[in-house]
Sequence to fold (282 residues):
Amino acid sequence: MNTNRLERINSEIERYRAAQPELETILALYQKVFDIQESASSQEEPAPLISDEDAIAKLAAGEYILKDIPFEPSAELFHQTGLKLGRAFTQTAGEKFPTPALLKLIENHPGGLSGFITAMLSDNLEYLAKFTQNTSFNPETLLFFVTNLVSPFLTAQAKYYQPQVDLLGWDKNTCPFCGSSPRYSCLDKDNGARRLFCSLCHTQWNYRRIKCAYCSNANAEKLRHFYSALFPYQRVDVCEKCKTYIKTTDERRLGRECLPEVEDAVSIHLDSIAQNEGYQPG
Ligand SMILES: [Zn+2]
Ligand SMILES: [Zn+2]
Fold:
């Protein structure tokens, strides 16, 4: 993220705040989170992990760029960012978020910070679930905290490789930079082409429209979507084969560029509808 992008995010948030005052709590939290993340990613300024040539070779071989590469953010900046995020969570929840204990758990991972991030990227978070049992917060909230803490450090690296991803293309249903599952999708304002968005590292990649973003099912009869009554440019794409859903913003209806992180935050009503209908986030 850069300052210019943060300004655009803030102006989108203001637009939603005016249109839907009931989103105030969630928007206030996200605004703080985006601000903290921007501060972290602008201070991190890392050297690229691998060269452009090596990145292109990996992508061409179908491997995501971070695969088998230890990723170690600056420990002090990581810690300070965690404390700031924790304060934002405490303010929103109205009760003390267990930041020091959670940071200790992360920083004392047997593989260090890079071991923790590798475990997180491979969804190996059992110890986090165990930690949840001793707090009044649910696992989703703790996972939301952890992913938002790691995200700006991954984003600061991933930005180097977006041009190679665009150049080479990537047809998989996992992120070409960090290997995570996509979180949101957008349909292009000019031609309706679909882009998937990784909420962890903010990489975007093109993906077929008639294809599940999670199980790769391409049978059109098993794929459908429904639009939001609240924001008619937002929709939910569901797969009847694996019973997952992904939220999508159609830029042709929105009339401007979709900022997936904002669209995701303001569309929680669609998560409720999809989950009540028996679909799970991918
Ligand atoms: Zn990613
Ligand atoms: Zn599916």
Q: What stands out?
A: Residues 212, 214-215, 217, 239, 241-242, 244 surround zinc ion (ligand 2) (CB under 6 Å). The domain at 171-281 is CATH 3.90.1670.10 (FdhE-like fold).
